Amino acid sequence: MKKKLIPALSGLLVGIVASTVFFADYTNVGPKSVADTSTKSNAEKVYVPFGEQDEYYLFASGGHSGQMFIYGVPSMRHIRTVPVFSQDSATGYGWSDHTKELMGDYTWGDLHHPAFSETKGEYDGKWMFATDVANSRAAVMDLETFTVKDILDVPNTSGPHCAMFVTENTEYMFLPTRFAVPFGSEYASLDEYSSKYYGVMSAVQFNEEKEELGVSWQVALPPWSYDLSDAGKGPSHGWAVVTTYNTEEATTNLEINASQADRDYIVLFNWKELEKMVADGQYEEVNGQKVIFPEKHKGGLYLVPVAKSPHGVDVTPDGKYFIASGKLAPAMTVFSFEKAFAAIEAGDFSGEKYGMPVINYESVMEREVNPENALGPLHTQFDDKGMAYTTMFISSEIVKWDPTTGETVDRVPVQYSPGHSVAAEGDSVSPDGKWLISLNKIAKDSYLSVGPSHPESMQLIDLSGDKMEVILSAPVNPEPHYAQIIKADKLSPIEVYPKDETNPDAVYSQDQTRIERKGNEVHVYGIAMRSKFIFDAKAERPDVIEVNEGDKVVIHLTNIDFDEDITHGFAINRHDLNMEVQPGQTETISFTADKAGTFPIYCTNFCSALHQEMTGYLLVKPSN
Amino acid sequence: MKKKLIPALSGLLVGIVASTVFFADYTNVGPKSVADTSTKSNAEKVYVPFGEQDEYYLFASGGHSGQMFIYGVPSMRHIRTVPVFSQDSATGYGWSDHTKELMGDYTWGDLHHPAFSETKGEYDGKWMFATDVANSRAAVMDLETFTVKDILDVPNTSGPHCAMFVTENTEYMFLPTRFAVPFGSEYASLDEYSSKYYGVMSAVQFNEEKEELGVSWQVALPPWSYDLSDAGKGPSHGWAVVTTYNTEEATTNLEINASQADRDYIVLFNWKELEKMVADGQYEEVNGQKVIFPEKHKGGLYLVPVAKSPHGVDVTPDGKYFIASGKLAPAMTVFSFEKAFAAIEAGDFSGEKYGMPVINYESVMEREVNPENALGPLHTQFDDKGMAYTTMFISSEIVKWDPTTGETVDRVPVQYSPGHSVAAEGDSVSPDGKWLISLNKIAKDSYLSVGPSHPESMQLIDLSGDKMEVILSAPVNPEPHYAQIIKADKLSPIEVYPKDETNPDAVYSQDQTRIERKGNEVHVYGIAMRSKFIFDAKAERPDVIEVNEGDKVVIHLTNIDFDEDITHGFAINRHDLNMEVQPGQTETISFTADKAGTFPIYCTNFCSALHQEMTGYLLVKPSN
């Protein structure tokens, strides 16, 4: 088996390669086709004049920005930042009561791998999911309002990096961990790494009615790092795949020590089987979670050997194959689900690791694909003709190739060091084949310099001609680890929040506004409208809140301008308070009036010609 | 005098006008010129292909985002967000020790009115200043590194909205307040508004050597709202102007009550004279500040009557005139500095307000300019031919006109409701006359919908032809209250941070790395490099930090990859900690290890093919 593995670079060479940006050698690629399918210039292709709109939405992971960034394609214009894991003063996210509660104990996150909800393997335009590597959480965003509905702290996990994206009908998101820790992040010496540390894969489900995420069950995996993953579809529905590295179980200097063995594994798992095992009580309870331990609870989990330290693994749109990208090996490996199922059926195993049978590499490998001089394959996307597009981090290019033959069809250089790429609906069962965006880690000299640290870069590639062509470079907010592109007509965002007469905090008319005192709590039921705040219409000064030093102040504010795009903001001078009320929306913000004084209140969102006049006062009477 | 004032809309009409977006009537404007100066299509004009770079930088105020947004012009690509007043997890701003200290007690701000430092009235490309309306601060950003160097809490002030931009040689920034409060924000009933509340103008200076902002002196102004402002230049050097509204001193419902009187004022002041008064001891000390009270310390301050509730006031590039924009009046008023100086010399006053002489309107007014059907003039920019460009908020258009004749030269509709606009170096002594960007408050249907709240919008206008032409619409992060455009070749950002051997926290070689315990404080002197952390090279596991529960942990981290754009991040799982080290930079982050356990450390910025392997552990030994 070992002989068949692609020879990987030595540890030393890896160090050199990793610290240098290589450029592809294109001497073997033919001249640019003159038969372009379009007579438009590149400038015209990406230009969306006023009155027209982009064809696609791009949802890009913000990485350590913690947010989701929404762009239009092909114009690559950044339309909106949707706050998810990090505070966002632009929208008051993290200051208003309910967003503060959503964020829990955290002020930021590291958003990886966004994924649209799917029905029959198609993006259904309803929800968007994402994980937080930094603080081990998962989030769901509603695509009607572009706001986060729930954030789940995933117990027993540390760094759910490789969100599975979702299964074919959004049955599950699988969240295996990049870091191994003891259960509950308990203290344990690294000398006991192999016995006490675990990787944990969480099967997370979304309750659409309650708009809540929850952990259904977990699998205790060996203390390896789990990297990227994908769900089966069609013939592989019910299955999923995850890449691993550091199967060496190194506890220090992973750069060298996790790159020693010639092979790591892909974890291949039958989630329908695992689900059944849990239903049958085949689990142990750990910190309140149902956890499958493969050594005790056998079945459903298999290992497929793969060239060392793979990064991405991607299932082809027809669900027949999964493609591992070598990262340190120069090749992609195409594996067959059909062959894997047959091997499992036949018990064609070379051994077992931590209770998981290891399938023979030769039995499941379909082909190894090694484009000449291409280095550092990371991730693969697909078009409508079955072609695969793989990013080459080290040789800085996109390679288009045919998974059924292994033939290299086309190559195009990108600037520089692409991580993921994303094609229009390119990981669904029916990719559109229209655009590919290379998500580059290094921009360097691509744009005007903004100091020692440059933005990441997105490059739009036109797939409509015979040859791929990079037609636009756009800087991007840090850091697009992955993105998805959805047809614009699949989304139907609401225009204003509808009236909700059942909401006890909402006030829709001036005569309902009031300030109520309950002990030392003061509740304000106010409205924001062009161009004033009305906290109590009956008061001498309806836009003034007067409280006593030490009072808890709870301000409920409803925006009664039921007009698209008429958003009001709310801030109190020198109070570090900030919230936004979108048209029709009711929001609440609470604070303790712990300093006596006179503090202006004002609208932070320019809302009318008299916006500057949209002010009031908070008066806090001294307690002595 | 009253007769000469432009008749303003009644209070009732104001309400209607303010809540409706009007569109300009262009029946009086001639057909579009066929003689374009360029044969390029609009798409080609804004397209900057890879390998070429934008001609200008745009620095846009982020408003309640709290940040500065940097764009390239003409591509309108967003290159970078520079955090100023709000936390920014993308860069660790607000988590690392020194950025947390910069932010003080606040987590966010409302950034208004950015201003480049100037030498002889030209942008000199060295510094950028801005104010925080929410929490009454001022900040300075260094244009070599695109980072904030100092943030000043401005005492005695509430909402320094109308930053003066800077004087001709960056002698001062003047920060008058939008909100009136008692000194020190003390508690006082609104019934005592006229006697106890003040507007305060702060004269802020920047010490370039120490990279520190400081308040030199303040002026106690009447309890009015101060809106926009500008500094004199050339013949008006040493002078400055500020618009006011609510000279009615209304204390509630300003939408109606601050729009009652037919006129408000422009405060015209001689800052050289005020400086001299302070030197002569003509001030009182209030909360540690030197404060001029005009009723006691006479001189240097004058009032110019102007049509009700003006918004912007802009000095022409030649320094001869200042132009007030009506907001509620349909007109711009051109005032002459020369006439003002003569009136002051002659004592040509109609009375006095709060110790400030009121100059006769007729004596200083040069002309009233009232373009047909134009409504809601807010702000004015200039080109290289002396032409003025004024945004019309209500009629949603830009009007080009000649300040020396009052003639309307051209008009172009914008979508929708422009606040400020900004021309290439358009408020300096030598505008470039190349591009004008309309900063629109409402985008509505301009882009793909992202729910009830849409982004603001920027529209790029080509000034090179006979007629203005909107050639690109770009969504923009909230909220561009103002922006400045600087020629790209005026900036020279550094490529990497230079070694600083005098920095006791910096470590540039592996053998200097160490972990030192001082009582219950643990100091880590570590390095980040592709692709590992080394906290103590001599340890068995150099990338592990082991401490005791309750220890204070101080991590100093130096990025020793002296390569442009190779930035590393630092985060600890489940610790809500996050910082960034740019190439060559040393940063420090401190925390108390208050929970025992095992917590992975990792690099958050994808930095090499082995970035995923750039990890370590924080082990916190339980105390019992």
Explain this structure to me?
The structure is a homodimer of 624-residue chains. By secondary structure, chain A is mostly beta strands. Chain A folds into two domains: 2-490, Methylamine Dehydrogenase, Chain H (7 Propeller), CATH 2.130.10.10; 510-621, Immunoglobulin-like. A five-stranded mixed sheet of chain A has the order 8-9-10-15-14, with helices on one face. In chain A, strands 32, 33, 34, 36 and 39 form a five-stranded mixed sheet that branches. In chain A, strand 20 (349-353) and strand 21 (356-359) form a beta hairpin. The radius of gyration of chain A is 27 Å and the shape is globular.
Number of contiguous helices of chain A: 8
Interface with most residues:
A-B, 162 and 162 residues
Q: What overall geometry of chain A do the principal axes of the alpha carbons give?
A: globular
Query: What is the oligomer described by this structure?
Result: homodimer
Arithmetic mean of pLDDT of chain A: 93
Number of strands of chain A: 41
Second-tier CATH architecture of the largest domain in chain A: 7 Propeller
What's the CATH first level of the largest domain in chain A?
Mainly Beta
Largest sheet of chain A at a glance?
A: 5 strands, mixed
Percent of residues in helices of chain A? under 10%
Kindly report how far apart the N and C termini of chain A lie: 83 Å
CA-based gyration radius of chain A: 27 Å
- What's the name of the CATH homologous superfamily of the largest domain in chain A? YVTN repeat-like/Quinoprotein amine dehydrogenase
Parts with pLDDT < 50 across at least 5 consecutive residues of chain A: 1-37
Beta-strand proportion of chain A: 35-45%
| Whole-number total of structural domains of chain A | 2
Q: Class by helix and strand content of chain A?
A: mainly beta
CATH topology of the largest domain in chain A: the name is: Methylamine Dehydrogenase, Chain H
Q: Give the neighbour order of strands across the main sheet of chain A.
A: 8-9-10-15-14
